[in-house]
């Protein structure tokens, strides 16, 4: 099972002192977090894609390419690649290039994002969100698997005898996760292609995501990719830890109360009860994360959001130390002991290459 962190790259004031980092500071902090993730033994670093303030990660391949040059083992991923507003030809070429530079340590999470105005900024209509996701990914899927592509669709100019370059490393496209928080059509799409499904269930109650994941698993089996419990599932989560749970709650509360994504909604206690957010001791994080398997079945990737809401970089790095030293080793052992032998691990370039050779 893979464990890692994802970032949305928000530039948010620290509510305890009012200081807002510069864009340069935030971008460099994200790099530092990725390097720390590898240092403490995590498997994955994933960045979102946003094109509006207060977010900075508008060019994931630039950031991930830089991180690739400074790491050796970390899988580099996106927490969202906007399949709706990016040209699939550009996605195919950008991420194949990154794949070569990173020696295969690359995968992607396709999504539609959560910012409506991004559609007209890139010449699209939000009312076409689902059709764009379906058509653009169908083309991307072919561009990575066919050397010469003839194609015509609804949303971009036709292609005639087109070859995307460079070709995927070793002829193996990056593994794709389809991310969704609400759309059964995306779960269906992931199942159809035999790709992964990532349910970033950080805001809504678990029952909603249980239905989405169950749909994906049933359709994965329907399309002949394996049994339902062999489907490739990823989950998101949020944690804040201190040795004593009371200290964690006291320290995190002002960040929760003032964060744009939290403030004005349910209380910290209500949000902790209804969502994966865990604010407490390392053992509480372990206990709650282990319940995810009870709700969603055996799964392959767990990503935590650690660096949001204006938390200082120093605090985030402390959190990563706790995560790597006290939480992940226990979770690895427990999840491995519970996972049946026929349930696969998360696909990597090496495992996909070995499967093809076998």
UniProtKB/TrEMBL annotation:
Coiled coil: none annotated. One of its GO terms (cellular component) is cytosol. Residues 1-294 form the Luciferase-like domain. SUPFAM superfamilies: Bacterial luciferase-like. InterPro entries: Bact_Lucif_Oxidored, LLM_FMN-dep_put, Luciferase-like_dom, Luciferase-like_sf. Keywords: Monooxygenase, Oxidoreductase. The keyword Oxidoreductase applies. GO terms for molecular function: monooxygenase activity; oxidoreductase activity, acting on paired donors, with incorporation or reduction of molecular oxygen. NCBIfam families: LLM_CE1758_fam (TIGR04036). This is 5,10-methylene tetrahydromethanopterin reductase.
């Amino acid at each position: 099972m893979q464990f890692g962190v994802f970032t949305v790259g928000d530039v948010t004031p620290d509510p305890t002192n009012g200081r807002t980092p510069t864009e340069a500071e935030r971008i460099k902090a994200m790099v530092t977090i990725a390097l720390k993730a590898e240092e403490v033994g995590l498997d994955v670093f994933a960045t979102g894609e946003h094109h509006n303030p207060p977010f900075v990660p508008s060019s994931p391949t630039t950031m991930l390419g830089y991180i690739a040059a400074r790491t050796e083992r970390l899988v580099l991923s996106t927490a969202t690649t906007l399949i709706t507003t990016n040209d699939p030809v550009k996605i195919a070429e950008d991420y194949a290039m990154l794949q070569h530079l990173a020696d295969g340590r690359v995968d992607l999470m396709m999504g539609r994002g959560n910012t409506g105005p991004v559609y007209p900024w890139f010449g699209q209509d939000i009312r076409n969100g689902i059709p764009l996701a379906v058509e653009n990914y169908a083309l991307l899927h072919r561009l990575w698997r066919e050397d010469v592509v003839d194609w015509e669709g609804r949303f971009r100019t036709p292609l005639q005898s087109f070859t995307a370059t460079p070709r995927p490393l070793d002829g193996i496209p990056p593994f794709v996760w389809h991310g969704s928080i609400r759309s059964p059509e995306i779960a269906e799409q992931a199942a159809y292609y035999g790709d992964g499904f990532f349910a970033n269930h950080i805001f809504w109650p678990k029952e909603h995501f249980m239905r989405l994941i169950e749909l994906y698993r049933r359709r994965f089996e329907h399309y002949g990719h394996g049994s339902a419990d062999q489907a490739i599932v990823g989950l998101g989560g949020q944690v804040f830890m201190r040795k004593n749970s009371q200290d964690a709650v006291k320290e995190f509360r002002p960040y929760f109360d003032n964060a744009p994504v939290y403030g004005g909604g349910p209380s910290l206690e209500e949000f902790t009860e209804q969502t994966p957010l865990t604010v407490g001791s390392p053992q509480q994080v372990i206990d709650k994360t282990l319940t995810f398997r009870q709700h969603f079945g055996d799964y392959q990737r767990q990503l935590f959001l650690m660096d949001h809401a204006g938390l200082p970089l120093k605090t985030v790095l402390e959190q990563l130390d706790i995560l790597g030293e006290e939480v992940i080793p226990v979770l690895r052992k427990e999840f491995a002991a519970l996972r049946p032998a026929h349930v696969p691990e998360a696909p990597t370039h090496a495992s996909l290459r070995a499967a093809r050779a076998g």
